Amino acid sequence: MKFARVGAALAAAAIVVSACGGSGGSGKTISIGISLPLSGSSLASAGPARDGALLAIKEFKLDGYTVKTVVLDHAVNGVHDPQQGAKDMTTLVGTEGVVGVVGPFNSSVAKVQIPISNEAGLLQCSPSNTNPDLTKGDPGKELRAKNPDKINYVRVATTDDIQGPAVAQFGFKKGLKSVAIIDDTETYGKGIADAFAAEWEKLGGTVVGREGAPKGTTDYTAILTKFAAANPDAVFYGGVTATGGGLVRKQMAQAGLDPAKVAYLGGDGIQDGLGSTEGSFINIAGADAVNSYSSVAAIHDIPDSAKFAEAYKAEYKVDPGAYSASGYACAQVILAAITAAAKAGDVTKEAVRAAAVNPSASFTTVLGPVSFDAVGDTTQKIISLYSVDMTAGSDKSGDWVFAEQVDYK
After folding, report:
1. Stretch (H or E) spanning 289
2. How far apart are alpha carbons 210 and 130 in whole angstroms?
3. Are residues 234 and 279 in the same domain?
4. C-alpha to C-alpha distance for 138 and 142, rounded to whole angstroms
5. CA distance 233 to 208
6. Is the pTM here over 0.85, yes or no?
7. What pLDDT digit, counting tens, does each position of 330-344 carry?
8. Pairing of strands 79-80, 75-76
């Protein structure tokens, strides 16, 4: 893949165009956009989703069509940036031949992208967005106000009204009773923290403190010192590694919260790779990552996981990440919609959108059968839960280790 910088007409976004998908002969060229935060600390989380999508597209063959990709990075200073995400979506809807988009990764970016893609009727499939308000109820309707009758946004990750409670239940089963909560005030971070807190108290647990600290915060010791005075069993972080998830854990010891004694809980925002992965949660937290637990809003026990892992490792020389399979699955959904549109007559933006969002359709993906409800949410309701292994001598030391998955369907 060759990286090229394009001009102001594309909002100064980094763009990659590559002929990833093959064809059975010369014919029509179409494109799939990939809109993710792909630099700095965000790369540890979103890079595997990009790579999963690119692998699926590379493997795809459809007689008479060549599929290219347009890859845009909306991270600014290493953190997902909604304003840049909006510019990138404007670029994609204005780029001839783009019939679908994999992304975005973060719910705050989705919140500004969906109105743009919806007005244009451009299909989006997110591998990781979990905030319920992107699709459900009046908030979801408001995002689709320009084109209310045409759902164009789907996601293969289930939502935080399931994920937040799942993490609370997981922590409670470990015997944790009191928790302090900090969130990054973002759409995803605050939303999952709210859902976690409600379930924690419903279970009989105590929330001994809660604070918001916006992205860009670098010193959490004042907040954590206040938490330490309440002697919590755990700290829950609502947000992603790039907005503070790793730093909070790293600074807990300085504030008197011993990581070996005080558990750390989080959602999929901190589940982003090995300690050797630069910018990942474990890489930032170091030895203090011990006794940390997280979730992923997707299935862990994917069908034929060995085959997928083999293909992924052959392509990238590393094992799949937390959202590699989800990125692959989103690309599979778009590619299946392209195939359906071609079979029906022609691959157009509208034909691809309509094929993907059809509630009666079921897609064969690496995650298993995937279908979407009337507002675009996946019918898979599985949460996978993990812990950090810091055991000396363990072949998994410095990595997230799968604990269990729960099907809430």
Report:
1. none
2. 21
3. yes
4. 6
5. 10
6. yes
7. 999 999 999 999 999
8. antiparallel
CATH number at residue 277: 3.40.50.2300
Number of domains in the chain: 2
- Are 176 and 233 in contact by the 8 Å Cβ rule? The answer is yes
98 & 233 share domain: no
Domain carrying residue 213: 160-296+383-407
- Which residues of 108-213 form beta strands (DSSP E)? 123-126, 153-155, 178-183, 206-212
Q: Residue 291: what pLDDT?
A: 97
* Statement to judge: residues 339 and 211 lie in one domain: no
Q: Which two tokens stand for residue 368?
A: 């298993």
pLDDT in tens, 302-315: 999 999 999 999 99
Helix (H, G, I), strand (E, B) or coil at 228: helix
Nearest alpha-carbon partner for 171 in 237, 224, 225: 237
Whether 143 and 29 map to the same domain: the answer is yes
Indicate the residue type of 22: G
Q: Among 167, 160, 144, 6, which Cα is nearest to 72's?
A: 6
Going through 224-321 in order, the beta strands assigned E by DSSP cover: 234-238, 263-266, 292-296
Same domain, 200 and 275: yes
The values of phi and psi at residue 46, to 5°, are: -90, -25
Q: Are 195 and 222 in contact (CB under 8 A)?
A: no
DSSP 66-119: EEEEEEEE-EETTEE-HHHHHHHHHHHHTSTTEEEEE--SSHHHHHHHHHHHHH
**Angle value at C-alpha 96, between 90 and 101, nearest 5 degrees:** 55
C-alpha distances in Å from residue 4, one per residue of 14, 57, 71: 7, 20, 11
Residue found by looking up tokens 């308000």 in the block: 133
Count other C-beta atoms under 10 Å from residue 369's C-beta: 11
What distance in Å separates the CA atoms of residue 371 and residue 364, rounded to the nearest whole number? 9
Q: Are residues 326 and 268 in the same domain?
A: no
